[in-house]
Predict the 3D structure of the following.
Amino acid sequence: MASVAERRLLRPVDRRRDRMRGGPAGVRGQATVLVYGDYLCPYCRRLAPVLARLREALGERLAYAYRQFPNEGVHPGAEYMSRAAEAAGRQGKFWEMHDALFERSPALTEAIVLELAKKLRLDLPRFQRDLDDPKLKKRIDEDIADGRRNSVTATPTIFVDGVRYDGAWDFYSMLEALERPVGARVQRTARAFANLPTSAGLVLLLAAAAALALANSPAAGPYAQFVNAQMAIGPLGGPMSLSVGEWASEGLLAIFFLIIGLEIRREMSAGSLSDPKAAAAPVIAALGGILAPAAIYLALNPGPTAAGWSAPSDTGIAFTLGILAVFGARASASLKVFVAAYAVADDVFAILILAIFYPHNLHAEWLIASAAAVALMFTLNRWRVYVGWPYLAATVALWTSLHLAGIEGALSGVVLAAFLPTRPTPSASPLLAQAASALAELEQAEHTLRRAGADRRQVEQEPIWDWASRNLSAAAARLLSPAERVERSLAPWSTYVVLPLFAFTAAGVPMAANLGAPGADRVLWGVVIGLAIGKPLGIVAATWAAVKARIAVGPADASRVAFVAAACLCGIGDPLSILMAEQAFAGTGYAAVAKLGVLIGSAVAAALGAAALAFSPPPATTVKPQPAGKPDAAEA
């Protein structure tokens, strides 16, 4: 759920303003590299020869831009060096001074800079005047401000064609990123699409629209065959035999709930839900979001059709978050977390409704196995087991026991999120020492081979290579806890595979029902109004009452309009709503009517929520200034 939009360069490279070298604009296949750098940064100095080698290899196909990001707190005098380069640029020799500064750094002083200016045959009186020109300092400050807006916190920070480059800094890795073979192009295109704030929501909504179109077209038969095709662990027709749609909604959706659970857990420990009153608000909202639709439905259906009151009780959180993603600029981060926490509570309440009011589907004996799996996860967490496979085994056991108990197995993802271990934040110094030691030994081995006349690539065959790679891997792995590693690796799969497949199999509801049956119109309107009006009304009213009673607080940075819009979007139903309709009206034609009501009510709720979001003001955002003395990339 975290945004990655900050990876895209907010102010594109401008040849009229930025310092550029390389081929002219319009060269076919040209790549643009922008570096935010500091002339006294030792890592920028080590990157400079790599960039020079890239320029030599690519020629006019590489355009190189440089923006100033002096870190005066860590490197006293860095700002003076930036002013020196810009002052030389006023005399047409920026790049000459740029290269000279990196060749001489870090042993640079003002006297050495003046010597360099003499060697470059600069007009020294003019050079010294320009050094103190406020306009020149303003230009540097603008570069620094641009960098901070682009989340630049260390030097060097590299952007390739407007997208932040987080790969390795060696020549061959960067050359591959710039030459863009087929694999790199596919990866780059996928990353660029993922960087769009609306990409996740668009993929989900397109999948849902395709499913709805197919289910109500001549292709409805093949579509239904695909969704209902049986896939089994064991014999077909056995307890572990599910349709493709069921595997998507109950099996794969566990990954989505795992990501949601990890996000909520993080917010509860140090985010918008860390206040117990803030954590209570989504639970209270979920309760109101179930009671209000039920009351509206029962008011319209006091007779034999009253059994359908549960149909508008559950929220299709995947669709809700998908639409919020489309309007990402309008929905604040804390509002999205609130909705995610609300959805988890809402699903728990929905499961309880199924267990209490439709108990024939509940197999209590399997609940003991579920409790044992949860206890195993708890024990693994307490024993500080950081290996992933025991948690995976316990999760599979929990999912299986929940499914056999008649409970949505997808909830196993939330349980796993609660018990995946975190680790205390490591001290940077020992990790820096470990990484620096490994790289220093590799560098020494390279130099030894070079002096002996051997190919430096032979260092891979030396024992030092294995030792260094293991130490570097250990240092890098320690930066992330098991929970963070799982979230990073599974989040793209959840967004671009799990959720679209779920939407494609869940949204294909035929828009056909017998509305001529007695009371069918009341069933339809009860579900539609319950979802589109009752849900948001119950969520807003319950949250408002809890806030007034001072037992809860709402999302702080969400406007009232945005909160109402999110409440409307929570009126989007999901397959659990369809299941409740089937359970309530088993064997009757009212089930199809209630399903149609879920579909229409969800569409109305989505339209109301999207319209309200379109008119809501965007949340106020501020750029946090980088504190003086922030270390460079490898000094952190």
Remarks:
- The two ends are 27 Å apart (CA to CA).
- The chain has three domains: 5-194, 199-422+481-615, 428-478.
- Residues 199-422+481-615 form a domain with the Na+/H+ antiporter like fold fold (CATH 1.20.1530.10).
- Residues 1-6, 621-636 have pLDDT under 50 and may be disordered.
